[in-house]
Write a structure and sequence with these properties.
By secondary structure, this protein is mostly helical. Among the domains are: about 50 residues, no CATH class; about 50 residues, no CATH class; about 25 residues. Helix content is about 55%, strand content about 0%. The longest helix is centred in the middle third of the chain and has 28 residues. The termini are far apart. The relative contact order is 0.05.
Length: about 200
């Protein structure tokens, strides 16, 4: 389920970015790309041209060995160690979630504890995760402490300081007010015009 949610999020993110930054990419208003593929095929069959020239159907892409969402990030030494450990254990009963992780990452055993008969593995895994989180939070805290404080720029006041500047400001405000007053009087005394579609006055 988590992998399906990741795939859906990736699909929507790619489509949103394509609508913003890819020239000619259509704005569909939904994320059901398979329906657009079917619509393109029907449009070509009936009209001999495509409906969305900037759209590339999923069938036009070449399949590759790439994997997305849940992927392996471990090195070859750890992979060889997992293989050796799997041979030592023999048949191991894994849950569906753990088996999916193994298949997605192409590993013989999951990288997290899986045996309820070995509580020490769970304790060790929990302590290692907590240790990692403490180191990470401590590094962030040190970075925040040693980061030099930024000096805030001086505030620029909008009020002029000199008497001459104050006088000019007052005159400009007064001139603007007089101009607005003249426009207001002109609009109030302007005669009313009849609408062309209204009845004429005899």
């Amino acid at each position: 389920m988590a992998d399906c949610l990741l795939a859906e999020k990736r699909h929507r993110h790619n489509q949103n970015i394509s609508e913003r930054r890819r020239a000619g990419f259509p704005k569909l208003g939904h994320f059901s790309s398979h329906k657009i593929d079917q619509l393109q095929e029907l449009y070509v069959e009936n009209h001999g041209c495509v409906l969305y020239p900037g759209w590339i159907s999923a069938s036009a892409y070449k399949p590759t060995d790439e994997s997305f969402d849940t992927i392996a990030l471990h090195h070859t030494q750890l992979h060889d160690a997992l293989k050796a450990r799997r041979e030592e254990l023999g048949d191991v009963a894994l849950t569906k979630d753990l088996q999916y992780l193994c298949d997605a990452m192409d590993v013989p055993l999951p990288l997290i504890p899986f045996s309820r008969e070995a509580p020490a593995e769970y304790q060790l895994f929990t302590s290692m995760v907590q240790q990692f989180l403490r180191k990470r939070s401590g590094a962030r805290h040190k970075q925040m402490i040693h980061q030099p404080k930024r000096k805030s720029p001086p505030l620029k006041t909008m009020i002029p300081q000199g008497k001459e500047q104050l006088r000019r400001l007052a005159l400009s405000i007064l001139s603007m007010l007089l101009h607005c007053l003249v426009l207001f009087q002109h609009r109030c005394h302007k005669p009313c015009m009849l609408h062309p579609m209204s009845s004429t006055v005899a």
